[in-house]
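Components:
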Amino acid sequence: MFGAKGTGDTSGYGGLVRTAASTGSSERPYGSYFDEVADDLERAYPMFSEAIERVVVDRGELTLHVKREKLVEVSKILRDSLKFEMCMGVSGVHYPTDAGRELHAVYPLLSLTNNRRIRLEVSVPDLDPHIPSVVEVWAGNNWHEREVFDMFGIIFDGHPGLTRILMPDDWQGHPQRKDYALGGIPVEYKGATTPPPNERRSYK
Amino acid sequence: MTVFDPYAPSRDTTEGTVYSVTGGDWDSLVQEIGSTKEERVVVNMGPQHPSTHGVLRLVLELEGETVTEARAGIGYLHTGIEKNMEYRSWTQGTTFVTRMDYLSPLFNETAYCLAVEKLLGITQDVPERASVIRVMMMELNRISSHMVALGTGALELGAISPMFFAFREREIVLDIFEMISGLRMNMAYVRPGGVQQDLPEGAIPKIRDAVKLMRKNFKDNTTLLVGNSIWMKRTQGIGYLDLAGCTTLGITGPVLRSTGLPWDLRKMQPYCGYEDYNFDVITADTCDVYGRFLIRMNELEQSLRIIEQALDKLEKLEGAPVMVADKKIAWPAQLAMGGDGLGNSLNHIREIMGTSMESLIHHFKLVTEGFHVPAGQVYAAIESPRGELGAQVVSDGGTKPYRMHFREPSFNNLQATPAMSEGGMVADIIGAVASIDPVMGGVDR
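Structure:
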């Protein structure tokens, strides 16, 4: 009953077949204001084709997949030339089966001037989880990057103080990764230790 | 060396003398500090402090009464909601998100459901009556949330009566929530595809009466606080944050509108049919706590206007569906409120238990396993009482979210605490934090 030894799926429906997300790039025209954004970015940033790996338009949203080395450069251009003044944070996604690009960081951007939204996505390998920090571009990403570090273990180089933010400072592991073992931790109170739920009973 | 004080024992460290003040007698601390030349004191405010809006910890470096550095410590209310949702079906997700920012549960649910509907590609199929009910519930929720912001904000600055009035109005709203959904908080009322159940009989006249009553009652707090010279001295010019500060810190909501920018997602990027309602975006140009207070006060009236228009629409849409027609998504049991306040639809039970085995199988599969959502990722943003609430949802085609992330306005806006309070007086931090209106359940999730 308790204890997830396999996939960490405690719901009992882990056997359901899941299909993988598509990885193709979208064709022009992208529709809506997306062509204009792509054109403007190409004009303002001549190294567009080197820095942007893929342009994906899905469900009315534009995603630019950016190489991590170019992230800060592209961000500055987007902020200053294309008027994406606000970054609404960053969230991590862990794809353990996507070899070589297991960890993704997703940045939703908002332009107050043009009333537009786009999204940046950066993917890095699990063995080298480093992404340059964009705190110097959008200071408000400070806590969001700390949260992604806390939950996924992505290290944001150049962040002014990359420490855990939600979990305790001495916590082991990064809880929102797919390979994080569920089952709880032993709790010590007044000298006695209560084992985690998956070790409490013999019926499993 | 002073005698041992049980309320303020001290020990020497490399950083200087550390006093652990646990309350009660501060005399020895004051005496000791008076004998040293240095005036720098580092004070831990919270996480158990009545005026920090829940379990927020502020680490303050003080030079006399001036704050030279302020840092916020969070995480005391982290419950792993995002992780939990990866192991539950899409419908069960609403039960989790409603518990994040517990003062605005309907906004959390709506943001989540809009994202799921976008992934499913059924945004256009959500019935109009469901959208109107969502709008009405959200605006009622905006009133109850602003009431807590105003009431507790005033209380923290020493004004007690406004809180009595504010919570009186909040009760009216919570009673309406109870009448409609059966619950006063955390109602999981908005579901992917529509809402859980239709309004009960006689709801519309009751809400109309409540709107009338609230419009009259709001005047009590207005006369107490607007233009009150003590209130203005405590709030004007406090917690200053201008437009440049807001954009670089990603601040939205009343704090952004207090810089004079009329940025409101209900107007700029309408959802749930907000483009069909007449209302004004309230701004102020003072960039301070008083401006944010005035914005919240005036938004109450705008919310009442939207509710009245929603009620007019609901009267015209009487009997229309409140859930998508697709039986692969809509919850099978058409719940109907019984005399006991909750209940199942007897007709549905008669069908699945008596006549149709297929209906029973379908019901069982949909409730236990849930529905599949096509793979992809979306970001859906709405204007919550605190700013932009964004739901970033990733699906891999399964019956559960692959990754669920909430861009919480409280979490983001709390970063502005140092910018708003450093260089000011220690007493003004309270006003600055209250004007951000952070809800720790939303900050920590």
